[in-house]
C-alpha cells in the first residue's frame, strides 16, 4: 500500500461523514466511497420527499388543528391521516439515523485502515447479520397499521370532544386535554356510573375466575386420585362443556334462567315453591353470570391442572410418606408449588380475560337489568360492555375512549406486575 493511500486514510474525517449524512442521506456514504449504498440512500430520501412530503405535511397539520372549515375538513379523517403520517415519519427517521450512524462507523474503519468489503461481501454480511430483521420487518409494519394504529386512534379520541352532538363533518372536533377523564371522577352522573361499573368489574373478575380455578383444581385432584376408576371417561365428560362454543352455551343458559318460561324456575325451583327474578334483579343476574362463567371456565383449568398433576413424580409423594407427611402437607408442599409454578401465566390470563369478558355479559342479558341513575350502563355491565354501550347506544365516543384507556392501563399494569413476580417467564439460568 502506498504512502499516499496511508496518508489519505489517516486524514479521513468521521465527523465530516456524519455531517454530510445529516445534510442529505447518502452523502456520507459517497464520501466514504460506498457509492452504491450512498446512491440508494439518496434515492430513498428524494423519493420519500417527493411522494410522501405533502401527505405528511397535511397529516401533521390535520392532527394539530383537527380542521378549520366545517363540512369541508373532517376531523376524524384528519386524525387518521396524522397518525399514519407520524408512523411513516418514525420509519423515515429510523432509516435516517441508521444512515448517519453507518456513515460515521465506516469513516472510522477507513481512518483505521481496515479493509472495506466490496459489494458482494457487503450483501452477504447484510444477509447473514440482518436475516432476522429482514423477515420480522414486514410483520412489524403490518402490526403497526393493524394493531397499533387503532389503539393510537382510540387514545386520541379520549382527548377530544367527539360525541353525538359534536360530530364531524357537521362540526369540527377540538382537543380538550384531560377533560373527559376529569368528568369521570367529578360529574355525578359519570362518577356514580364509573365507580359502580368498576367495582362490579373487579368483583366479577375475582369471584368468577377464582371459582372456575378452584372448581377445576378440585376436580383435577379428585380425578387424579389413584382410587378413582374410569379416569378417561370422567375426564372426557368434564371437558365436554369446553367443546361446545361459548356463545351457544350462554344463549342456552339465558333461556334456562328466563324468569317466566326458563327451566330453572319452572322445573327445578318450582318444586320448592320458589321463583327467582334472574333477569330482573341485578343481584340475581350477577349470581347467574358468575355461575355460568364458572361452568364455562372450569374445563380448561381442569385440563391444564390434570396435565401438570400427571407430570409430578410419584417418588416425591413416596418420600413424603416415608417422612410421615400428611395428605395436606403433600398437597401444600408438593402439589400446589408444581401446579402454580407451571400454570401461573395462564391463570393470570384467565383473570385478564374475564376482566374483558364482553361475550357473556352481552349475550346473557345485554348488561341488564336497567338501573336508574346510571349513564349508559345496566346493572351487570362491566367496563368493556359499558364502553360498547357508550359507543353504539348513546354515541359518547370520547368518554368510551377514555374508559378504554383506563381499562387498558389496568389490565397492562396487572399483567405486568404478575408476570414480573412469577418465575415462569424468567430465563432458565436466572431462576
Automatic annotation (TrEMBL):
GO CC terms, sorted: maltose transport complex
Domain ABC transmembrane type-1: 198-418
InterPro entries with a match to the protein in the record: MalF_N (IPR035277), MetI-like (IPR000515), MetI-like_sf (IPR035906)
Keyword Chloroplast included in the entry's annotation: no
Main location: membrane
Family: Belongs to the binding-protein-dependent transport system permease family. MalFG subfamily.
Pfam families: BPD_transp_1 (PF00528)
Residue spans crossing the bilayer: 12-31, 38-56, 76-101, 133-159, 197-221, 233-257, 287-312, 333-353, 397-417
Known function: Part of the ABC transporter complex MalEFGK involved in maltose/maltodextrin import. Probably responsible for the translocation of the substrate across the membrane.
Membrane topology: Multi-pass membrane protein
Name of the protein: Maltose/maltodextrin transport system permease protein
Any one Gene Ontology molecular-function term assigned to this protein's record: ABC-type maltose transporter activity
Swiss-Prot/TrEMBL keywords: Cell membrane, Membrane, Sugar transport, Transmembrane, Transmembrane helix, Transport
Subcellular location field: Cell membrane
Protein origin, superkingdom: Bacteria
Record-level GO BP terms: maltodextrin transmembrane transport
Amino acid at each position: 500500500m502506498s504512502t499516499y493511500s496511508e496518508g489519505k486514510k489517516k486524514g479521513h474525517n468521521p465527523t465530516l461523514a456524519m455531517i454530510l449524512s445529516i445534510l442529505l442521506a447518502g452523502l456520507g456514504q459517497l464520501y466514504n466511497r460506498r457509492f452504491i449504498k450512498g446512491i440508494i440512500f439518496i434515492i430513498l430520501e428524494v423519493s420519500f420527499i417527493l411522494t410522501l412530503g405533502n401527505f405528511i405535511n397535511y397529516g401533521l397539520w390535520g392532527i394539530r388543528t383537527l380542521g378549520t372549515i366545517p363540512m369541508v375538513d373532517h376531523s376524524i379523517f384528519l386524525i387518521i391521516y396524522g397518525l399514519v403520517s407520524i408512523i411513516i415519519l418514525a420509519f423515515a427517521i429510523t432509516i435516517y439515523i441508521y444512515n448517519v450512524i453507518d456513515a460515521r462507523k465506516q469513516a472510522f474503519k477507513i481512518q483505521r485502515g481496515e479493509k472495506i468489503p466490496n459489494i458482494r461481501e457487503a450483501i452477504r454480511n447484510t444477509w447473514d447479520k440482518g436475516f432476522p430483521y429482514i423477515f420480522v420487518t414486514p410483520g412489524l409494519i403490518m402490526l403497526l397499521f393493524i394493531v397499533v394504529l387503532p389503539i393510537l386512534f382510540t387514545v386520541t379520541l379520549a382527548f377530544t370532544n367527539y360525541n353525538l352532538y359534536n360530530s364531524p363533518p357537521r362540526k369540527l372536533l377540538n382537543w380538550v386535554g384531560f377533560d373527559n377523564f376529569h368528568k369521570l371522577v367529578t360529574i355525578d352522573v359519570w362518577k356514580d356510573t364509573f365507580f359502580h361499573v368498576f367495582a362490579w368489574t373487579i368483583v366479577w373478575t375475582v369471584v368468577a375466575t377464582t371459582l372456575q380455578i378452584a372448581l377445576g383444581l378440585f376436580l383435577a385432584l379428585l380425578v387424579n386420585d389413584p382410587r378413582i376408576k374410569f379416569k378417561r371417561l370422567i375426564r372426557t365428560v368434564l371437558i365436554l362443556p369446553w367443546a361446545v362454543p361459548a356463545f351457544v352455551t350462554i344463549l342456552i343458559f339465558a333461556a334456562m334462567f328466563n324468569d317466566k318460561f326458563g327451566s330453572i324456575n319452572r322445573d327445578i325451583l318450582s318444586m320448592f315453591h320458589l321463583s327467582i327474578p334472574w333477569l330482573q334483579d341485578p343481584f340475581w343476574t350477577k349470581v347467574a353470570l358468575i355461575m355460568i362463567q364458572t361452568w364455562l371456565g372450569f374445563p380448561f383449568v381442569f385440563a391444564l391442572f390434570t396435565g401438570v398433576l400427571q407430570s409430578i413424580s410419584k417418588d416425591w409423594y413416596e418420600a413424603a410418606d416415608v417422612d410421615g407427611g400428611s395428605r395436606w402437607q403433600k398437597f401444600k408442599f408438593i402439589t400446589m408449588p408444581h401446579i402454580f409454578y407451571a400454570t401461573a401465566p395462564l391463570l393470570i390470563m384467565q383473570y385478564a380475560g374475564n376482566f374483558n369478558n364482553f361475550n357473556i355479559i352481552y349475550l346473557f342479558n345485554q348488561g341488564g337489568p336497567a338501573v336508574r341513575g346510571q349513564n349508559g350502563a345496566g346493572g351487570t355491565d362491566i367496563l368493556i360492555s359499558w364502553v360498547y354501550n357508550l359507543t353504539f347506544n348513546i354515541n359518547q365516543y370520547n368518554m368510551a375512549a377514555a374508559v378504554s384507556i383506563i381499562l387498558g392501563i389496568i389490565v397492562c399494569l396487572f399483567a405486568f406486575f404478575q408476570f414480573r413476580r412469577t418465575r415462569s417467564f424468567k430465563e432458565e439460568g436466572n431462576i
